[in-house]
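Subgroup meeting minutes
Present: P.N., E.W., G.H.
Scribe: E.W.

1. P.N. recapped why we're keeping a running log of single-chain structure predictions: easier to compare across weeks, and new members can see raw inputs and outputs side by side.
2. G.H. added today's entry (149 aa).
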Amino acid sequence: MGRSAGDAMAREYRPNVREMSVISRLDQAKEAQRARALQLLRDHMDALSDRIATKLIETKLVETTSKSELEGQIHWCLENLLNAEEFDVQYQVANVRDLVPRPHFVSLYVTAYIIEKLIDHRCIVDVYGTDEEIYRCVNAQVIRFIPLQ
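Output recorded in log:
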């Protein structure tokens, strides 16, 4: 007996061994890059939080009553990223995930924090600019310390 069109459609797609090997290597490379980025973040957290806070103020994207409190909040955000589960990171960046092509996950996490949580902090007068402008400002500092290939 021949197969009907319905039988062909019902078959599951099973990637072959070569495809699975490529997918596995890509996943491993992505995970290694993420681990390297988190180690660099640990190594440069103080300098990075200072640079991000300084540039946000200099570019007038954030108006604050206290640069040191702003820096402290950015530092706290970066510490949270270091300790966060992957699900929590994805949840935090969900609203800004498509902001730019191939975003840096550290920059996305900090940007989401600035526009969703930091804006309500007592030391913040206001946050100006678009989400993309904030991302670009943050990312310009992040890639100085944590470049991604």
